[in-house]
Design brief:
Blueprint: E1 6-7, H1 18-24, E2 26-31, H2 34-46, E3 50-54
Length: 64
């Protein structure tokens, strides 16, 4: 059995080839504002190796 890499804090919006990235590793994907929540949850529902981290980053807190 070979282990897959697990990225504990990836920002997929900065990745050029997201599809390849999703195939090569499991990952914890942060959603740092309410506007990100649904897309990150949807990504986790469509890709078994994606685990959502839902929250509000302190830099975004003034918006709520």
């Amino acid at each position: 059995m070979s282990a897959r890499p697990f990225d504990t804090h990836i920002h997929l919006h900065l990745i050029d080839d997201v599809k390849s990235c999703l195939q090569q590793a499991d990952m914890l994907v942060p959603a740092i504002s309410v506007s990100d929540w649904q897309s990150v949850i949807g990504l986790s529902q469509n890709h078994s190796g994606v685990y959502p981290a839902i929250g509000i980053h302190p830099w975004e807190a003034h918006n709520y």
